[in-house]
Predict the 3D structure of the following.
Amino acid sequence: MVEILQNLALGFSTALTPTVLMYAFVGCVVGTLVGVLPGVGPLAGISLLLPATYGMNPTSAIVLLAGIYYGAMYGGSTTSILMRIPGEVASVMTCVDGYAMTQKGRAGAALAIAAVGSFVAGTLSIVALMLLAPPLAEFALRFGPPENFALLVLGLLALAYMSSGSMPKSLTMAALGLLLGMIGIDTMSAFFRFHYGVAELGDGIGIVPVAVGLFGISEILLSAGREGKAEIRAPRLRELLPNRDEWRASAAPIGRGTVLGFLIGIIPGPGHVISSFVSYSVERRISRNPDEFGHGAVAGVAGPESANNSATTGAFVPMLALGLPSGAIPAIMLAAMMIHGIAPGPMLIQQQPELFWSVIASMYVGNVVLLILNLPFVGIFVNILRIPYSYLYPAILAFATVGVYAVNNSVVDVWIMAGAGLAGYVLRKLDFELAPIILGLVLAPMLELSFRQSLAMSAGSYGIFLSRPIAAVMLAVAMTLLMLGIRSIFRRTPRT
Amino acid sequence: MHALTVDRAAGAAFAVFALLVLWESRSIPFGTFAEPGPGALPVLLALTLLICSIAVFAGGRTGERLVDIRWSEWRHAVAILGTCCFLALALERLGYRLTIFVALLTLVSIVEKKGWTAGIAFAGGFSLGTHFLFNTLLKVPLPRGPFGF
């Protein structure tokens, strides 16, 4: 413990130098901006700004990029709550109840709960990262392809089982998302699937254009014909802070979201996305008033927002301690470390303790900076609602277009966004949930790779999924959920 | 005779889509069950989608009818989707500033009927302002048109 505190002091001595402090601040500001702007998520933001770090020293560069990462997690909630447009994929679940709170005139309260929840989760998860990194990283190391496959299957079935709609409809959407994820070049054989002559599909269908289309563009299409669409009441000053009941309702979900998010974040995979979905499902499941979810439940904002910020920190565990990126964003940050001559892996902590502990210390600093940035500016963000909708939606459309285009500099992504927008519009009219499509799309490449790697490991024997205890337990839980779902379908079906 | 419900229509549509994916997967090597190829997962997922679609269809005996869904905003929706298509078609041909200007002017002045002066001011300010923000400040490469604009 004394050693940890000494190391942390060493980290703070670097993180609190004016230069590093400035980069932490700039990273947080840019990250918040990246998260707020619809369509420009942390992945695009970090990718775009990576070349700007080439001239910096390694510590400043990693601190800046880390600041963008968790700044975007904070900022991503803003457009989800105010406009039902997820600034980044992890904010998808925040759209549901955050936007419902906005429609009830509680936009300011939702933004404040998201900011405080993110701060608490971010700070507590850094403590956990600091104390639990070695044993947790060791546990995550036990996950091979069969365990990863079982985890992904469990994640998809858990989402379908706990969704507010019917299980077959949720599974249909998840299967659709997984199928979309099959488009592109197969990583094991280099076979180009479902390309129809479009070379840009080689890397698959991007998550950003699909998410922006399904959630953002479909919202614009649905809102376009609503009566009184420009009549948005700006909240009063006192409404910018949550009331006592809202604080009380958010406390436990923030705590649960923090723990869930951190644990999911350290497991390889898009932890920050899965954690917000799982947190939302858990909150809805254990709520005394599950019918409130979808109609402005405070726990539906507090839980997922805390979870995705906590998972962001959790993702640093395998990245910093093992050199194992747990998703696309940590992978880019890992690439950035290598560009700066840092060899990520277990030796990093021993060989470059200053870098490791200054990144940890800068996370504390970043969380304070983000809270200072977000709470006072909640009022400014709420003022976006004052803009007449006839001007606001064309601006959102333009922002979404530039954000989607900027990821790959490809108009194919703009076409995908338009197609996803039309699909989202029709599916929402038909009362289908859209979130499982995104989860399926994100998980598809990992699901396929882990499935085929598992069979390669076992020389084609499916027994590998049952002979490994962790995988077997997770698959057993997944099958139980499926059976429970099927049973509930037969119970609900009216006899005629 | 019962009118078609939303779930039955959607279930049938997804089943047709699943069959289409199965048909398209013929040209992708399936491999074997012990050693799956690049076509294995698409086929298995299409079959999963087919089973789920049948479940949605079967469970959709009652519920909201398809004809009861209101599409009152369809004119706006078509105009916005048309603008999306224009953005995709014109972005690399006309350049960022001109494309965004035309798209926003169309939506504000024609679709929303806010007048030409307001439309030109908004579209012009937005296209130039966002170009400065993204292209000049954030160094995001945005396409230029044939006029260098």
Q: What stands out?
A: Confidence is low (pLDDT under 50) at residues 227-234 of chain A. The CA atoms of residues 234 and 386 of chain A lie 6 Å apart.
